[in-house]
UniProtKB/TrEMBL annotation, chain A:
<protein>
    <recommendedName>
        <fullName>Heme exporter protein C</fullName>
    </recommendedName>
</protein>
<dbReference type="GO" id="GO:0017004">
    <property type="term" value="P:cytochrome complex assembly"/>
</dbReference>
<dbReference type="InterPro" id="IPR045062">
    <property type="entry name" value="Cyt_c_biogenesis_CcsA/CcmC"/>
</dbReference>
<dbReference type="GO" id="GO:0020037">
    <property type="term" value="F:heme binding"/>
</dbReference>
<feature type="transmembrane region" description="Helical">
    <location>
        <begin position="161"/>
        <end position="181"/>
    </location>
</feature>
<keyword id="KW-0812">Transmembrane</keyword>
<keyword id="KW-1003">Cell membrane</keyword>
<keyword id="KW-0201">Cytochrome c-type biogenesis</keyword>
<keyword id="KW-0472">Membrane</keyword>
Automatic annotation (TrEMBL), chain B:
<keyword id="KW-1133">Transmembrane helix</keyword>
<keyword id="KW-0997">Cell inner membrane</keyword>
<dbReference type="GO" id="GO:0015232">
    <property type="term" value="F:heme transmembrane transporter activity"/>
</dbReference>
<keyword id="KW-0812">Transmembrane</keyword>
<feature type="transmembrane region" description="Helical">
    <location>
        <begin position="184"/>
        <end position="209"/>
    </location>
</feature>
<feature type="transmembrane region" description="Helical">
    <location>
        <begin position="116"/>
        <end position="145"/>
    </location>
</feature>
<dbReference type="GO" id="GO:1903607">
    <property type="term" value="P:cytochrome c biosynthetic process"/>
</dbReference>
<feature type="transmembrane region" description="Helical">
    <location>
        <begin position="46"/>
        <end position="64"/>
    </location>
</feature>
<keyword id="KW-1003">Cell membrane</keyword>
Amino acid sequence: MWAFIHKLGSPKWFYGISARLQPWFWVAALILIVVGSIWGLAFAPADYQQGNSFRIIYVHVPAAFLAQSIFVSMAVSAVIFMVWKIKIADMAAAVMAPLGAAMTFVALFSGAVWGVPTWGTWWMWDARLTSMLILLFLYLGVIALRGAFTSRDSASRAASVLAMVGVINIPIIKYSVDWWYTLHQPATFTITSRPTMPMEMWLPLLIMVLGFYSFFIALTLMRTRSEILRREANKRWVRELAGEAN
Amino acid sequence: MTGTDGTLTGKAMTLTSGEPHGGLTVAFWATLKRDLVLLLRRRSEVMNPLVFFAIVITLFPIGISPDPQLLAAIAPGLLWVAALLAALLSLDSLFRADYDDGSLEQLLLTPQPLALLALAKVAVHWLLTGLPLALMAPLLGIMLALPAGSYAVLAVSLALGSASLSLIGAIGAALTVGLSRGGVLLSLLVLPLYIPVLIFGAGAVQAAILGDGVMAHLAILGALLALALILAPLAIAASLRISING
């Protein structure tokens, strides 16, 4: 078990295994997102209240899911990096942050677009919009802190500490903002309880969520690979790799 | 170990021989006293956040409206936000002087846990920033036509809340102390984490105005403080180590 984890932590080994895993996740992401979009946008029945505008859910909810999961994955990577000094974990955390910020922005933007037909306004200070906005600020803080250090090692450790502090605070922020004000409709999508929406609407949403997750994994693998090459550029195996490619 | 009778166990003997007598408490009070004396000799640094608080509060009636009814409605939030910004402004200098003259490195080298010594420094920050702000807030509340009956709650909520603000903010200050221009970055990192405290702090004053029970808000502020008191010193210590070694 430990040998496996340490092997996984070796950049060279990870570079090899991720090359084999990556295509599968790309294929899965492509198929799931294409199927989910076509099903959700063209074939799923229109909502009896919101009409066709509800179809934004097929982008909004997966993006919002990812926005939160990526922060947690980033914090988990940060813990792994801080405790076991596994460099790969930090490289993954570094490439996840911009992706998470982008997903948070997509969730906010699609929410704003959805707000026009349903609420009649682009922005509403309701609990979930507000906590998403705060999440975006947390992401931007982590990215900015990492960029502010000249020494890469300090940058990695500082960003890790901030990611851990942030992930402890996310539930507190979320509950305090919920308490502060809530106007948003109750959560539309849960895996654990029975769906409240009809099956024909829920299934494409599930497919889209899975597709977004596959996309996230594939992209993280790809960007971690380029991060490995960038950070290990002086290592012998990378130089050999570059020599072979030329 | 001359002078100790033979009944002492080996463990107690190593404890007394390894550390100066009462090491932990002495170190805590010594750090507290040193910082208090240092700050009290630079009075302008203590006064600046208070003056900033007063000026910012003056800006709002000028920028919005001098109408007492309007001001009374937004006074709790204004006072809290202005006090929060004033406390934030003074955070940048929390570790700066010690970092510049090298005494922070000496703190790192002491046998006592750094988290405890950092807690002493944060306590001084609260005593000379948070507490005076809390005492000054009712005065500015009068100028904003804050309804009667909420003055005591305003002071108490600020005193409780600003302690959490000092603790959380010190994490950001510790992370950015090694950076030459950490000021703006510090606010970017810390402000999202301040939101729960702001919600319950301003909520307490609002509840006092409306005649609702304020104890729930104050209890949650106390709970946040308890949590910050346990976790923040560890994060501050880890961040200081990163900033010094980076």
